[in-house]
Amino acid sequence: MVTEDTLSLTPRSWLQALAKGERKRLLGSALCGVLAGSQTIVVVVGLAWLIDQLVVDHRSPISLLSIFSLLLGSVLLRAAFQWGHETLSLEASLRIRQRARAQLLDKLSALGPVWLTSQHSGSLANQAVEHIDVLEGYFARFYPQLRITFCLPLLILAVAGWLDYLVALFLLLSAPLIPLFMALVGMGAERLNHDQFVAVSRLSAHFIDRVRGMTTLQLFGCTSAAQQDVWYATDGYRRLSMRTLRLAFLSSAVLEFFSSVAIAVVAMYVGFGLLGYIEYGPSTALTLFSGLAVLLLAPEFFQPLRTLSQHYHDRAAALGAAESVVNILNQPSLVSRHHYMAPRSDRSAIELKAACVAYPSRGQVIGPIDLTIQQGEVVVLSGASGSGKSTLLALLAGFIAPSAGKYRRQESSRYAWLDQQPCLLHGSLIDNLRLAAPEASCEEMFAALHRAGFGPLLTQLPEGLDTLIGERGVGLSGGQAQRLALARVYLSNAPLVLLDEPTAGLDQETEQFVMTALLELAQEGRTLVIATHHPAVIAAAQRHLAFEQGELVEVAS
Amino acid sequence: MMAIYRDFRPWLLLLVRRRRRFLVGALLVWVTLIAGLALLGLSGWFITASALTGIALALGIPARLDVYVPGGGIRFFALMRTVARYVERLYNHNTVLTLLADLRYRVFGHLTRFDDARLHGERASDWLSRLTADIDTLDNFYLRLLVPPLVALLGVVAVSLFVAIWLPGIALLMAVTLGLLWLVATLLAAAWGFSHSYQQVVDQQSLRRLVVDQVQASAELMSYQTTQWHRTMIATQEQQAFNNQRRLGRKAAFINCLVSVISGLMVVTVVWFASLVFNQQLVTGPVLVMVALIVLGVNEAFIALPASFIKLGASYAAVRRLNALTIDSSSAAPVVMLTEDVDLSIQVNQLSLRYSQTLEPALRCINFQLPAGKRAVITGSSGAGKSSLASVLMGRLKATQGEAVVGGVPTWHLSVESRANHFAMLTQQVDLFDASIAENLRIANPTASDEKLWEVLKAVALDGWVEQLPKGLTTAVGEKGQQLSGGQGRRVALARLMLCSPQVVILDEPFAGVDAATANHLAASLDQWLLNRTVIFFVHQFSSLNPLPGVEYHWHLDAGKLSQCALK
Hints:
The structure holds two protein chains of two kinds. Chain A is an alpha/beta fold. Chain A has helices at 4-7, 11-21, 23-55, 65-117, 121-163, 165-174, 177-212, 214-219, 223-248, 250-275, 288-310, 312-329, 389-397, 429-434, 442-451, 455-460, 478-492, 508-523, 535-540, and strands spanning 348-359, 363-374, 378-382, 404-409, 415-419, 427-428, 468-469, 496-500, 527-531, 543-548, 551-555.
């Protein structure tokens, strides 16, 4: 049922797999970055030569027009490569995020309603939207920059070596330090990020905790004390985190130090060499051109690393987001991936053969159950809460695949679902009805709403079917929402209707209405399976199944 | 433009209050920038001077160059740049965190004035989930949008003035070009990306809603086999969002290119004009090189600007949302006080309540009277309007029509202090804070002694449980009281209530989540504590699990309508 490869995902392997899908663009972006960097080399070396010609050889500017135009060309070329670098990685990151989000949403579908109801929908949405978007920085900036950091310094080293091998040697000696410093910066940044992340989220949690409990704070009249408390908590966090930051910021200071020292050392070396104070190796051959060029190349040598360290938090953030997403991707799917087998008999709607349900965390919860529901039957399930009737209903609905035994249902048969808290989509009445039947016409919708007793309400709605309902629009009461859900059942024309406590928590009028509607549906010849403990519903059913001490028994009516 | 400024204004004023920190922080960044430029410029000067001196010496012309002062300068600037960078980061981070405390303090202050309709309204989950992120966005405003452009501007002034010592014409050219560059990197970027980055936030919210729908409606989507239909909706929305992001990203890339081209062209142009001046021997070689290198390095102040400014629209979206929260909560607080030590009766006259955005009233024309010191029960299923009625009675919601009067005063007009002193309510959803048991209890009475805490814990039959906890009263209850079971949480909340001495008490499902024996224990303790207080119990239904002591009145609530019932 569950393939092992999905279980073994780690945040890193997932990010790598995502990068693989856009390898060409990402590499292209890195290549453009290196080419842009090489144009910078041309600019600084050209500038050094130009100055040498002007100052030392006293050539007139007019005679150097070709160099000036070379510089102009390089400046423009550099901008073009920069454009390529940025747009390619942008495109790659967009496509990667699209793919990652689709993967996550697929997984949510495969996990099914049973798993999803145990989760906080807001935090799942966070993962599918914000956390996936966080990957942007990693793929658009960090990933190509890491490749640039491996190539560009080598190129600069080569040019510097051609100009003056002592300077190149100096840079080369610091080269083994680069991985060291990268690790140092990495660790620093990682620790900084991690500490900050933990502290910031704890602090945000504290703040949200107080906001969420505002009712209680108001009731006890201690809002101003809590407001002071919010300030002190944040300020206390500031004092605490400044202590760790003192260390963590050292890593960025080290990089700054390195590029400053490189300039200083090269300047001193070149200066003394040109004055003739150093008579060793290539220093006697130093000219203003080569000296100036290596001086300008020295900071460029460290620039890719500095840029990388600026993007380092993108990596940490992406890893954090990937971790939470991978946690979901690694959950074993509850919904069967296979198509349903058709029942043995044409007359049955659903057949269960020695079917069991087991949750990974709780083991087997119900089963083995043998049950055949004939088309047109009205079946009620009863039992104390927690006895397993909701699980059985979920099994019948296909929300959870049997861990053992067989589940057979008419292939591609649509069925209707109604539970005690009908879901309202953030959208118009039309959107909410289309949920049951995307192709339905407005007339059909009107008819279904009227039949569900929503008619009088509809006339009050300012924009009729286009009225937004729910959080962004008109609020519906529990009873009104249940009528809307009933309209979905009518609209779908599904021959099989599964209902989980459809009358619980309703006002008396709506409860009566829903009861009548259920009887009507039964008379139409639809198959009804209802989990309920409402005596009147049980009395109206043809078959009554009850959970007693974990066993499903048929109660004679 | 003015509207945008007006929305930002209250938050900018908050930043202005810390202007000294702000200016010092900007100054430190500026020093870092200048030290870097000085290092590069001085190095260029030194190399060129050395080269010329070296050539002169080689030709046998007597020449001298003081190497100690420039050498010391180079070392000094190298060190200064490192130190300034370190101090700057530390200092500015400190400022950012101070601002965070200010911002949260301010926003929290606004939220304390919310009534129940806004705290628990349907949109509550929406703003709550974005609240900290929005505040963080504003917090970042300082480091990303205020300091860098100021530093860049100061850098332009300093560099131009410095160059003007030798080459006033070129300095003017530089000032104009860099000013132009500054405008491109800030204003042009902001204006160009504004609608896209604003749209990006809107798109993200729409996408979020669609995903929440997919999760919440998963049962319906699966059974009606409309998952694909819904996924198509998500894909369309996502595509639209990505098209917008693509356009934004390309504009950002273009502005980055523009900044790169302008600064590159400026270097070439400055060198060209400087070489003309040099050719006429109006300026020396070392100075020419120094100017060229400074111009080469100055673009560092501009590199990060476009990326920040192109996202101004996103900051604006955050500000708009925060403004929506903090607006119209400044209405004058009610000030009427109840007289002390008078028994309070409850009288409800023709009370109706209708939430904005709903079609039907939550409460319809409710009338009842409860004499002082008596106890009543109101039954009703969930959604019948119990919580709404409780909120109106407590003065936490304004009735649409009619009023709830306690002790002769409409509760909506009572001051917050008066309500806190005279009323107490066990809410349906109890709030425990991420703190210790003792701290949670002392919310009701900060001065309560440990003995008093044990007393109330005993009243709710939790003393034995707390005693056997290793940390006793100082045990943390976790976020939202998650370390406690639902029943324990309610009992802690009930114990907390017993630390106050109100005249009117409302208990919403006081026995939810406890077994019959505990319910009886609680009932006995409550009976004692409720003596001489006016009490209303709200329960789902009468049952042996709801032993309501001393109740003399019973009303039933169904779909917002109240009816009198006979007491069994």
